[in-house]
Amino acid sequence: MSSGNAPGAPVSKSSASRPPIPATTRRKVRLFVAVTLYVLWTAFIAYLALAGKEAVVVSRPQILAAPLVVEAEVAEESADLRSVRVVQVFRGRQLLDAVKQPDGEQPVLRVSGFDRSRGWKGPGRYVLPLQPDGEGAFALVPLPASPGFPLHNRVEQTRPLIYPSTPSVRRQTEEAVRLAPDAR
Fold first, then answer.
1. What is the pTM of this model?
2. What element of type H or E holds 86?
3. What CATH number did the domain enclosing 129 receive?
4. Which of 54, 120, 131, 141 is most buried when burial is the number of CB atoms within 10 A of its CB?
């Protein structure tokens, strides 16, 4: 005798099952799920790309190479040498002590390098990595060379970066300065 139900034998409720789903239907369902996931993933990536378009990333090597890092109010001027009013000092307060200023007023510095800089969007507040230029003024610090990336034919990458003052930029600057506080 066979162990299975014989044809015509009554089928018990426990052994009754649904009819099998055809293979073509299963393939269509899998394809639909895969296409749906692909479309959702692509839409999510597109959203991230569009939403993060204005994100500014601060160059830690540039901040670490700068003896003076300030947040300053920069006015519209046509010359490369501009006067900037310091609002906050992240690093290099001792360099500002040498700048003559009336008591109680924010220091005003003469800064060069704006004509070559990247990040200028008009007058406003910026985070500026600076170094003394030897003539009583300051210059924007260019990006330092990175190991493995030769500077020849990369003039664009050596131009100094300035950063619009946003909460994110200030936080990134504070984190970079914390890596190497005033040691100069």
1. 0.67
2. strand 82-91
3. 2.40.50.120
4. 141
